[in-house]
Write a structure and sequence with these properties.
Elements lengths: L1 E3 L7 H9 L5 E10 L2 E9 L2 E6 L6 H4 L1 H12 L3
Parallel strand pairs: 1-4
Antiparallel strand pairs: 2-3, 3-4
């Protein structure tokens, strides 16, 4: 699951809460992911699901943050 941190339509904190309601064990806490040496967001993991945030992005990540959105997608395809 991916969410921009500036998304007012579907705030990432609500998405995190929804995942918590699934009752899965959390396996990773707010690990930062980087873009050009800067923190571009975080990855939080539960059994079988992860939430990736993209810092400063709104609801449509490719519109608000195309470079970070592309990097997220490339990392997803590489299973990173």
């Amino acid at each position: 699951v991916v969410s921009g941190t500036a998304d007012s339509a579907v705030p990432f904190i609500g998405t995190e809460r929804w995942i918590e309601c699934l009752g899965r064990k959390r396996t990773g806490e707010f690990k930062p992911w980087l873009l050009k040496g800067d923190v571009a967001g975080t990855v939080t993991s539960w059994e079988g699901i992860s939430l990736v945030t993209v810092k400063g992005c709104g609801h449509t990540i490719p519109t608000y943050c195309p470079e970070a959105g592309f990097e997220f997608f490339a990392n997803y395809l590489k299973d990173e």
